[in-house]
């Protein structure tokens, strides 16, 4: 059983939901990411989504776009992101790590070389924003052969057939994009999310994590009552951006926010 499957199974047994924070590797500087990953686990994170910086992050809003720019200014790359994950595994063998990014850096490395490198780094899942299941057959096969979960984004307007395709191609969990637009945009319509989740659950066996628009503890609690996991990204990156001259303060503010979310989700 994969780390992701084991994590969601254990959470389900105890009636809890997964807290899944996202940060961009190398933002605001490379030496920040590894200690931040460990701190997020201590604050209650169940899974970590580690963003691979990319020069054209089309699904991301301005906050995460700027995070990619800062990381790229420090020469952060897919290989360096994998190196950080490797260091994380030296002292944490429990928390799943999901790489989240875009297909171009993977294609530049080569699908097979990437899959081998991800396996060596003990990556648990790969979420490639711009690689739909219809075009992911080669990548999916290589990842699954190495016990790495391919994870797909599901949009609010996805059809039953598309949900079933993601259920077949994917594993680990489905990432439901809870609103139309980019990361950090808009406000959640909870009733609409709940209605869509009922449709999704009728067509997949996988846990459903909900992201795009989760900003605070109350929203995290509400979303946790609907889905299997809560993904938070832009709200964390905003803490980094507001404290570029004081990364330790950014770290403490991220920890505080995650702890408040964990407490709210468990209450």
Helix-strand category? alpha/beta
Number of domains: 1
Our Rg estimate from Cα atoms comes to 17 Å
Q: Which range does the strand content fall in? A: 5-15%
Question: How do the strands and helices of this protein lay out in sequence?
Answer:
Elements: H1 3-14, E1 18-24, H2 30-42, E2 48-51, H3 62-73, H4 78-89, E3 97-101, H5 103-109, H6 111-120, E4 125-128, H7 137-145, E5 149-151, E6 153-154, H8 160-169, E7 174-177, H9 190-201, E8 208-211, H10 217-224, E9 229-232, H11 234-242, H12 247-266
Parallel strand pairs: 1-2, 1-9, 2-3, 3-4, 4-5, 6-7, 7-8, 8-9
Helix pairs in contact: 2-4, 2-12, 5-6, 6-7, 10-12, 11-12
Would you kindly provide a written description of the structure presented here, covering whatever features stand out?
This protein is α/β, with parallel strands linked by helices and 267 residues long. The chain has one domain: Alpha-Beta Barrel (TIM Barrel), CATH 3.20.20. It has 12 helices and 9 strands. It has a 9-stranded parallel β-sheet. α10 links the parallel β8 and β9. α5 crosses α6 and α10 runs parallel beside α12. It is globular.
